[in-house]
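Re: the multi-chain job from yesterday

Posting the exact lines I submitted so nobody has to dig through the queue logs.
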Amino acid sequence: MEQAHHGAAAGPKQRAVEIGTALLTMLFGLIVIYGSVIVGYGWGSDGPQAGFFPFYVGLIICICSLINLVMALRTEATGLFAEWGQLGQVLRVLIPATIYVVLIPFLGIYLPSFLLIVVFMTWLGKYGFPLSLAVAVGVPAFFYLTLERWFLIPLPKGPIEAMLGL
Amino acid sequence: MIVDNFINLYHGFYIAGDPFNILLMVIGILLGVIIGVLPGLGGANGVAILLPLTFSMSPTSAIILLTCIYWGALFGGAITSVLFNIPGEPWSVATTFDGHPMARSGRAGEALTAAFTSSFVGAFFAIVMITLIAPLVAQFALQFGPAEKFAVYFLAFASFVGMSKEPPAKTIVSMMIGFALAAVGLDMVTGQLRLTFGVTELLNGFDFLIAVIGLFGIGEILLTMEEGLEFRGKAAKIDPKVVWKTWKTLPKYWATSLRSCIIGCWMGITPAGATPASFMAYGIAKRVSKNGKNFGNGEIEGVVAPETAAHAAGTAAMLPMLALGVPGSPTAAVLLGGLLIWGLQPGPMLFVEQAEFVWGLIASMYLGNVVGLILVLTTVPLFASILRIPFSIIAPVILVICAIGAYTVNNNVFDVLMMMVFGVLGYLLKKTNYPLAPLVLAIVLGDSAEEAFRQSLLGSGGSLAVFWSNPLVSTIMALGLIAGLWPLIAMGFSKLRGNTTQPA
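And the result, structure tokens for all chains:
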């Protein structure tokens, strides 16, 4: 393994990520082929079976993934995919966002939205609590009024909303 | 035939000119510009998020609102490109080349006026073309059987492979992932479940609206975060004097405009899209123009060319969507999904059965672009100030909007999780140069393409020869092959030319 650079320009190589992506799409293609074979990919008594079309789709994915894999293997390992610092930035959005969507089925949309905005603004944006709270209350309230009241589109609600009788 | 069109169009203006519909246009354009200006929201996912709000409207009003959002997003991309050097949309990347240098040298008003006016010209040209050609195409397409239908899909997807600047194998993988995702769930023909692997949430398959919101919305936020954007923009105010002065200089560039219009229309109809059209128009203008050397330093012609082409392409993408049921861009694909939800079957029969809807829509394109031009010229400072809101406030709000949008599609919380998965996928694919547009189009068209494919094979007893069985289908298939193999053909040509010039 090559030595890691100490400095700004360290991070996963573009080549490695390209190889990973090609392997990932190939795995996806194999799953599609497998799923098609289960339901039958041939010619039934009444024409093509359910897996007929997806079978060939999966096959093409595998073939082209192989091409992409070979292409990726042949490139030189110089370009960076992203610096670690940049990936850190991405994770700082991705992790709160993932927690946010996981909470929605249990707590409804309003409370997690409130928490997401507060966390984001105070932690990443370094804003004071008054402004963060104002935005965090204002945005969900805006959507409650426009969607639920005006357009009559229900949004997911959790125990808190039930307690408040909304 | 042509006279009929104008009578229909006149009737359409009557529908589109309804005060409520004009109000929707204004709302749509304003929303669209905001969507176009904000990172993480664009034409495709903006329309996808707002689609559920239109379920209770009449289809005509709904499509007017949504198409106007699309026009607004097209306009909005220019604002961020010129003032902030940040292309709000991929098709406005080429606009930054000359637009931002103009803004830096204090000519922001001029650049924006040129951009908006060119956008308007490009869109207008494309709408006139739609008015004249779409009914003919639709009538022609009425005689299409399943084999011809599949051939049209083949042509559409093959042109992606040929026109895309990404490697063909990557384009194909991305497209086929879309087809595979579309196949998940209940098979319409046999009534069998497939590719669900016993997961009940997958019974209904993947909704392309969720995919669009995730791929373009969440993926874009992750990308923006990685780049660590700081918005440092130029202030802009457009006063009537600048507008008038710029308008007086624009007719000089009529040749560039016309060329960009034609490039845009062509690229928009074949689903290659607005982005390559804008680059191509910029590139050709740079080569042809007298001031070509000065391109990149703030040449007004360098704003006119890409903006005209991008808007012509964005608008022309509506033609195949309406006449054939094959959308020319991701946003057109979302609109097509909307038509299906409102109970309208896109394609040639639309012109026969829903003439009022079609011509109302076409008339609204004329009105919407006029309204849009006036609106954006007068409200630029307002939108520029939206961009000054820091990203750490914008990002969580956009996340919330995306989550709400994903939920309201089917009132299903599982979709919100799926959106997140698509978001990460979108980030990964974008960073590794897999194009996202073919993936989205394949999810939308997957079922129809498969149905056409299977019906054709049923008719022929499984022989692939059905796709070469008559002159019509053979021509379309041949065009598809040429489009798909275009890079190889072009390479062959240049080699041939290289060889012949050497001996001489």
